[in-house]
Amino acid sequence: MKITDNEKRDIIRSIEKGKDLPEKFKYLLFKDAQKVEINWEDKKSELTNVCLPFQIIEHIDEPRKEKELKAQKSLDFAKGQKLQGWTNKLIWGDNKFIVSSILKGPMRNIIEENGGVKLIYIDPPFSVGMNYTIPVSIDSDGSKYDKKPTIIENFAYRNMWGKEGNSFLQMLFERISLMRNLLRDDGVLVIRIDHHWGHYAKAMLDEIFGKEHFRNEIFINRTKKNTQKNTRQMMLTTSIESLFVYSKTDEFEYLDTSYKLNEVREGYWRAADDSAGESQSPERIIEGKVFHPPKGKHFKFSQENIDKMHAEGKIRINEKTGKIQYYVQPSAEGQLDTNWTDIPGYSFSTKYPTENHEKLIERVIKACSKEEDIVCDFFNGSGTTAAVAEKLNRKWIASDIGKFSIHTTRKRLINTQRDLKEKELNWRAFEILNIGKYQKQHYLDDGLYERDEDKFQARKRGEKLFEETVLEAYGGQTVENFKTIHGRKNDIFISIGPINFSVNREYVNEVITECLDNKIISIDILGFGYEMGLFPKISDEASEKGLSLRYKQIPNDIFNEDAVKNNAINFFDISYIGVDPKFKKDNLTIELTDFKTFHNFDVHQANSNNKKSLSLHVENGQIFETRKDKEGNLNKTLITKSYADWIDYWAVDFDYQKRKEIIYIEKDDGSFDEHWTGQYIFENQWQSYRTKDQELELVTPPIEVTTKERIIAIRVVDIFGIDTLKVIKVTK
């Protein structure tokens, strides 16, 4: 193939701009280029290079360290973490940006100091057209409902992809390419995939890792279903899925390849001359007789070993066949091969869709890592990988884009910690991190190297862009000539709170004044954070003046461009937490006395899973079952009987503001500046949450307080996974 001068110029320009070479030149110019690649429409080989800061939003060491004191449970907050140094990480956000930020940011150094990433196990959502929903329990009457995931959570819960799988392949390609770069040299990636896309995934993985680094395809159980006969055809039920195993380099080797048998295997005699291939000295002598193996075979053991085994009664001459046999000892262990259908592939312990079984993950972790190694799962789901890694004394990192996943895993890992403590085994602390919130730095460029006027103008441009982004996501239109009012949505005006600090009473008063002066009767205030004590009192005051005032939380999803374009942003109403701190001498208890939420969901947002004729409707802090009668009339029945019906989980930090929240911002030279966000890390010291066997406690055990004042934080997670934090000051 002859390259023209114009084509040479095109190649040079591509190289200068850092772009990929046109496909037609790859094989001509590079002899060692991949001979086979998988291509799809809009394939992009460029990888994201972002480096976003991580925010630690919660730290959980040893939860609920309680001891008996005079028949009364009391809290003792000595550090409970048995293994110091590394803190496990549960991260909420898009795994593409998470892995990229780990690779580019300071967390990479921490990982390398702890040995690097040895194993990445992922079970990504398959492109199979299945729609998974999430069960939500309301305990007032034990009813169960299905909450549909948001469009943002589709990555976590819904296996639907457009363009006939092109977007699915692109999603995998970008993320797995980044994950490969995160592995240490002897690291390995194990991916679970099904029969619909396994063949495409295999070709793609060969391209990313090199086909020489393909180690195994392992068959695992999917489901067991009865196959029904049809008069026309026999349906073959799909009962297996695959694990593809790829190493980063040639340094990888399997570590633990044995497994426990269900029953101890009895000892037996086996032929000693059936090993394939011929040896230089094929004959062996036993009891003075010379034996030769069959053609093309050789003996398993040397003459020296045969003599020793014969003396121990472990080798013999079979009287019937005249062949040499050796004795295989009874064993409780088997040797792994690529057929793992002896164990279940799925579990349903958390009611989370497509939950991997712990036995499966245990086998993967043991085969591919050692104790103290770092294990990662960037499609976390219900947290099986993290839970098993903790039990097997591995360090772990897990992430998911769905809030429900993070919340489910939080509860699961707390239970794991408790179980390990009860068994007097080691455990580690874990922290919940967030990525994405600080993308607002994009709108707040400090302009450190700019003149003051330039800084001011840059900030104004950033604030304007931020306002436009929020309004678009909220479905509003820009309005002019107001100080605190930025937009309008139908008959409701919109005020966007400051990007760099919480909405406080002073700001709300300015909004109220401007609304009353302009005869505005309804306004929504959108903010990242809110000063404590704002609600519900100030809303009631506005209502008395004829102004309907609502607070809305700006979600972190606001920084997801695709979510904004697809109208997938859900601005949640602000919840209210009521608590009653009580002192008895130096002992303090916290009682959760109230929880108000003002969520409003479409009647189609959540559907009953046990009564097909019913649906779930959330309206102004109440949950209703709705049913159509024969005449088509809609009848509503109240489900939530008390404030506690809304609560799935609540926790307390009895010494808030003890640990500052520090993030690291990358500078132009590649180094990092340390910044205090102005917030504090919530250290989870006590919590109560619902399980099948556990009711919600509303009062904490007492804690001894010796200081006059104490700053305390209370976190509540409602049944839809929405997080609310309240900070209070208690005084003796």
Give an overview in words.
The chain has 732 residues and is α+β, with helices and mostly antiparallel strands. The chain has five domains: 1-33, no CATH class; 54-254 and 346-439, Rossmann fold (3-Layer(aba) Sandwich); 267-329, no CATH class; 461-570, no CATH class; 576-731, no CATH class. It contains 15 helices and 47 strands. Strands 22-11-12-10-5-25-26-4-27-1-43 form an eleven-stranded mixed beta sheet, with helices on both faces. A six-stranded antiparallel beta sheet has the order 7-8-36-37-38-39, with no helix packed on it. Strands 28-29-30-31-32-33 form a six-stranded mixed beta sheet, sandwiched between helices. The model is unreliable at 67-73, 127-134, 148-163, 225-231, 438-451 and 602-612 (pLDDT under 50).
Total of DSSP H or I helical runs spanning 4+ residues: 15
Shape: globular
The secondary structure category is alpha+beta
> Strand-residue fraction?
25-35%
Output the CATH topology of the largest domain. Answer: Rossmann fold
Give the N-terminus to C-terminus distance in angstroms.
86 Å
Largest sheet report:
11 strands, mixed
> What low-confidence regions span 5 or more consecutive residues with pLDDT below 50?
67-73, 127-134, 148-163, 225-231, 438-451, 602-612
The overall pLDDT, averaged over residues, is: 79
What is the name of the CATH superfamily of the largest domain? Vaccinia Virus protein VP39
* Helix residue percentage: 10-25%
Gyration radius from CA atoms, angstroms: 31 Å
Query: Which CATH class of the largest domain?
Result: Alpha Beta
How many beta-strand elements?
47
